[in-house]
């Protein structure tokens, strides 16, 4: 058991060293990418989850934007973008589908979508307005509520004269606020005198 614990510890230290070395290597690659003026984005080789998280962290510290793409765990890779060349949603969708980003093709698709939306809008304007409901809801429920139910109810309502008024006989405490406060203060003074 002690030799197994020593072996596990040795493996953990080796993993830690590998992660530190990998991070240093990624920091160098990212700094080269930042200095390369003609390169708006860089695609890295597929890597495992831990390596990708290290690269994302390095990119964030360097002030870059990074995304992971790929379907299964073995083929997932990281792309790092300079802030001024941050990807659009369309560009990200293309990478997610596994396609290469083509700005000319994307512009053509956008124009086609706009044209289709304009045509659809024009078609809606040409078509007649959708018909309204064939009858009033009151007609539908006339057998339940009658034809003048609301009017009859409004006529029978009279104001309740005692609404909001409570007779003095029903009140428990008939003292004014000042009387109640004076009584509380007197009790408080009495308690203080007893304590002394």
From TrEMBL:
Residue segments, region Disordered: 116-139
Protein known as: SPAG7 protein
InterPro entries: R3H_dom, R3H_dom_sf, R3H_sperm-antigen, SPAG7
Superkingdom to which the source organism belongs: Eukaryota
Stretches assigned to the R3H domain: 20-83
Any one GO molecular-function label of the UniProt entry: nucleic acid binding
PROSITE patterns listed in its UniProt record: R3H (PS51061)
